[in-house]
Amino acid sequence: MATVTFPQARQCVVDHVRAAAPFPGSETVALIDSAGRILAEPVAADRDLPPAPRSIRDGYALRASATPGVFRIAGEVRAGEPSILNLNAGEAIEIMTGAVVPEGADSVVMLEHITAQDGKVRVDAAVPPGSYINPRGSEARAGDSLLSPGTRIGYAEIAVLAATGRLRATVYRKPSVAIVSTGDEVVEIDMQPAPHQVRNSNAYALAAQVVRAGGVPRILPVARDTLEDTCLAIERGLGEDLLLLSGGVSAGKYDVVEQALARFGAEFYFDRVRIQPGQPMVFGRARQKFFFGLPGNPVSTMVTFELIGRIAVELLSGRSHSPLPLTLAPLAAAFRHQTGLTRFLPARLNDDGTLSPVRWQGSSDLAAHSRANAYLVADPDRAEWEKGDLIQVLLQ
Ligand code: AMP
Ligand code: MG
Q1: Confidence at residue 297, expressed as pLDDT on a 0 to 100 scale
Q2: In this structure, which residue's CA is closest to atom 17 in ligand 1?
Q3: CB–CB of 218/174 below 8 Å?
Q4: Does the bond joining 175 to the residue before it have cis omega, within 30 degrees of 0?
Q5: Quick one: pLDDT at residue 152?
Q6: pLDDT, tens digit, 9 for 90 and up, residues 319-359
Q7: Is the CB of 277 under 6 A from ligand 1?
Q8: Terminal C-alpha separation, the chain
Q9: Distance (Å, rounded) from C-alpha 262 to C-alpha 126?
Q10: pLDDT score for 394
Q11: Quick one: which H or E segment has residue 109?
């Protein structure tokens, strides 16, 4: 079976899901309900933006060629008024931010840069033509594309939809994602676990991650570590658009997830990724549905989903583009790791912009993970960083 690097794993998921292109259906929702959804229609400007030359400052509209100089104040134009005034030579018209620039004026001089006295304004410096005016159509022309299908609708996109007069938006349907936890030690979260048992936190963490990625989570009952029980869970899970399994993908005697998936004629694209946490991790397809077998340790489950699973949910929800939010930050203290694996370690981006790894007990330590607000990304080919060195950060 295939072991891949982190970039290979992500690319493999992107390639397979894109190639399968199971195009989601669409639905029409009220504008405000479209926030966070994926746009399924193109949106074009319904008129020039701005529709008329517009002042972007409070000041005086005038002709640049006559500056420096003294101008007679010939009137005023406010935002919300149609422009009826014409500007003649030697005149200035008082203008407010957002107002239409009068015919004949080619510049606006800010209030701060003039001296007004006795119905006149004096401008002491030469003003370049076009100053503080957004010409008609300078932001977009009527008919120009403003948003493409596949765009996630955030507040910036809502502003565009509202500005183009959309009361409703057509968005893709959300993919349903089955979540199956496996493990004889795993009990439902409303039960009191014995010392040898753990509550099924993974299903809920994954459900929250699926929601964030744009899917609808369906938590299925915990599967026992038997081939029969795991097959039953997979059978149900393959009824949804995507199947996530947690646990049972290591090399242990009772790790039966891969064996169970094979019974469904699964194709496996990889089953090991050179990352920590979470080396054992399975991605494949059965009955036309993609599945991920994620490691069961809580931090490994969450991290492998964020890094490699999430993009599948995003693509299945119709999203066309979704890069990982990676950036660089200076380390608050020296850092070293053993080369060979790309490490994604729970870390805190501090108020001063530096990054510190969170002290933790390893990939079972969900308490430490909850104190992190980012991941430190350690390059597999570099062993040491000094305090202040820039290191890669994955934002949460
Ligand atoms: P596994 O990958 O199946 O070997 O699981 C590794 C460890 O992760 C187990 O020993 C459990 O302690 C923990 N674990 C597995 N499944 C879950 C789950 N659904 N919720 C919380 N912890 C889990
Ligand atoms: Mg297990």
Answers
A1: 97
A2: 296
A3: no
A4: no
A5: 97
A6: 998 899 999 999 999 999 999 999 999 999 999 999 999 99
A7: no
A8: 31
A9: 78
A10: 97
A11: strand 107-110
| Residue 311: pLDDT band with limits 50, 70, 90 | very high
Closest to 181 measured CA to CA, from 239, 235, 243: 243
For residues 305, 309, 311, 316, the Cα torsion angle rounded to the nearest 10 degrees is -130
Ligand located closest to 203 CA = 1
Cα 188 to middle of ligand 2, angstroms? 15
Q: Decide if 87 contacts 61 (C-beta within 8 A).
A: yes
Residue 60, both tokens: 């005086």
Hey, which of 181, 246, 250, 281 would you mutate to test ligand 1's pocket, going by the most ligand atoms within 8 Å of its Cβ? 246
Phi–psi pair at 277, nearest 5 degrees: -75, 160
248 Cβ closer than 6 Å to some ligand 1 atom: yes
Alpha helices in 131-256 (DSSP H): 155-163, 201-213, 227-237
Which protein residue has the closest C-alpha to ligand 1 atom 13? 297
297: Cβ below 6 Å to ligand 1?
A: yes
Cis? peptide before 68, omega within 30° of 0: yes
According to DSSP, residue 64 is labeled G
- Cα gap 167→31, rounded to integer Å: 5
Flag whether the pTM goes above 0.90: yes
Tracing tokens 């479209």 back to the chain, one arrives at 34
Distance CA 319, CA 330 (A): 32
Q: In three state form, how does the secondary structure of 274-289 look?
A: CEECCCEEEEEEECCE
CA distance 215 to 218: 10
- One-letter amino acid for residue 35 of the chain: A
The string of pLDDT tens digits covering residues 350-383 is 999 999 999 999 999 999 999 999 999 999 999 9
Ligand 1 pocket: which of 297, 300, 304 to mutate (most atoms <8 Å of CB)?
297
